[in-house]
Amino acid sequence: MASPGSEAEREPLLGPGCPGSRECVIETQEHYKSRWRSVRILYLTMFLSSVGFSIVIMSIWPYLQKIDQTADASFLGWVIASYSLGQMVSSPLFGLWSNYRPRKEPLIVSIFISVAANCLYAYVHVPAAHNKYYMLVARGLVGFGAGNVAVVRSYIAGATSLQERTSAMANTSTCQALGFILGPVFQTCFALVGEEGVTWDAIKLQINMYTAPVLLGAFLGVLNMILILVTLREHRVDDLGRQCKNVNCQEENTDELQIPEGSIDHVAVVATNILFFVVLFIFAVFETILTPLTMDMYAWTQEQAVLYDGIILAAFGVEAVLIFMGVKLLSKRIGERSILLGGLVIIWVGFFILLPWGNQFPKVQWEDLHNSSIPNATFGEVIINLWNSPREDHSEQPVGCPVEQAWCLYTPVIYLAQFLTASVLVGIGYPACNVMSYTLYSKVLGPKPQGIYMGWLTTSGSAARIFGPVFISHVYTYLGPRWAFSLVCGVVVLTILLIGAVYRRLIAFSVRYGRVQE
Fold first, then answer.
1. Nearest to 240, CA basis, from 332, 155, 165
2. DSSP string covering 386-409, please?
3. Cα 323 to Cα 343: distance, rounded to the nearest angstrom
4. What is the 3-state secondary structure (H, E, C) of 59-71?
5. β-bridge pairing 401-402 and 364-365
6. pLDDT tens digits, the chain, 518 residues: what are they?
7. Cα–Cα distance between 92 and 423 in angstroms, integer?
8. Which of 111, 122, 241, 508 could cross-link to 13 by cystine, CB 3.0-4.6 Å?
């Protein structure tokens, strides 16, 4: 049988036990080409979905202030969270829809919702009042449309054999990661348009640095819909790669083993959902704490933090792409479960390294900071106040760890080498766990339609992206990095124990019932 990876996408599947024999080919060349053409269209859909989230994330706050002066830091938090909330609600719905109808339908509808939401975002300046609520609705609807990632994962899982699945899921994660990396790059390019830009009075459309990115997103969404309508075909194969004659991939030959409908291992399903929540939670925690931590520990100014942390996140993204590609090869040698467990151990080591030690302490802000960058509440407000801080004389900008955070007076500094080492380790462990978690999930579910199950998995990830920032901002603010990272280490240890407990159950559906050897 062809090995996972790029080779699996170049040759039609062969029957077991007779590699290279024409008599054993179990799909035609035409079917093979159509199947992989459809899969690659959904790689693009995943890429554009993640671009839709990241392409405006850096400009939401200044645009919100521009259109509605009543918007404050707490409302910004709701605007950002609305994307994940929308995705959390829609993922099971689109997944359920895809189980019973052609998968083109939920894909087209979801992308259309995102396109319309992006257009609404470009027009939120038009109403005379309550503009911030229109922005909230727009970002929520973009997230609602992004619930189609459940359909994408379900389609790819159902259109690939076991031997192809790891490679296809790794490619899906790579496209998603590239979207998150390139979205802010597109945003930066549109900064050249300027804050005023140009206005098309006939339709009251302002094209500026805030609206141009979403208009590009809407245009790409329309192209994506056209490609799906023209190119996407319904393909379902079983774990051996044989074309299914019905949506459940049930054998019609009565001599074959019949698997009852309710025989999916739900313990493994629940455990994998918990695992996926933890993996996305860890990423959300790291992404959220990056700027406040570096500013507190190293007395970086806002400009330095934006530059240096941007470089770190870009490197993190590149590292993730490399890991996604590497696990396709490594999984052939040691298996998905071993990579998953190893990734969690690496993440634990990364956060353990972040624990403060030594007798050197961070610089403390002793000045009167009524209008400074660090309030007492959450770190959503930290970023906002930093943005609003006086820029005429950067030498007067308060830097260091704010005295309002009592732990700054007795918690040792996290050395820069310590922080960078931890970042590299988390950058290795997170992508490995990410792709392995839903690769194993798709294999546990088997050849039956996976839409609703993939919807719940996406919901778990969306919930983690909401809960993670809230958790880390409060714990870090009031208790400091020692408690924050210790708790994260504890969560990772519990997750490792959970995986150990269900390790033997995280096997493919067909392996479990003896159809395929592990």
1. 165
2. HHHS--S-GGGS--SEETTSGGGG
3. 11
4. CHHHHHHHHCCCC
5. parallel
6. 344 445 555 555 554 444 444 444 466 788 888 888 999 999 999 998 888 878 887 777 778 888 888 877 668 778 888 888 999 999 999 989 988 888 899 999 999 999 999 999 999 988 888 889 999 999 999 999 988 988 998 888 888 887 888 788 888 888 887 887 788 778 778 878 887 778 887 888 888 888 888 999 899 999 999 999 999 888 877 666 677 665 555 544 434 444 444 488 889 889 999 999 999 899 888 877 887 888 888 888 767 776 787 788 778 888 888 888 888 788 888 888 899 999 999 999 999 999 998 888 888 776 544 444 434 434 344 434 434 444 344 445 678 888 888 888 888 989 999 999 999 999 899 989 988 888 888 888 877 777 788 888 888 888 888 888 888 878 888 888 999 999 999 999 999 999 999 998 888 777 776 655 55
7. 33
8. 241
Instruction: Count other Cβ atoms within 10 Å, centred on residue 320.
Output: 25
SS (H, E, C) 258-298: CCCCCCCCHHHHHHHHHHHHHHHHHHHHHHHHHHHHHHHHH
> Nearest Cα to 228, choosing from 103, 95, 97, 91?
103
DSSP 8-state symbol, 414: -
Q: What is the pTM (predicted TM-score) of this model?
A: 0.74
How far is the C-alpha of 339 from the C-alpha of 345, rounded, in Å?
10
The CATH T-level fold of domain 263-387+400-518 is Growth Hormone; Chain: A; (1.20.1250)
CATH 1.20.1250.20 in the chain, residues? 1-15+22-248, 263-387+400-518
Fold of the domain spanning 1-15+22-248: Growth Hormone; Chain: A; (1.20.1250)
Strands (E), 226-366: 364-365
Give the dihedral sign, CA 117/118/123/125: positive
**CA-to-CA separations, 206 to 184, 210, 277, in angstroms, rounded:** 20, 9, 39
Contact 458, 91 (CB under 8 A): yes
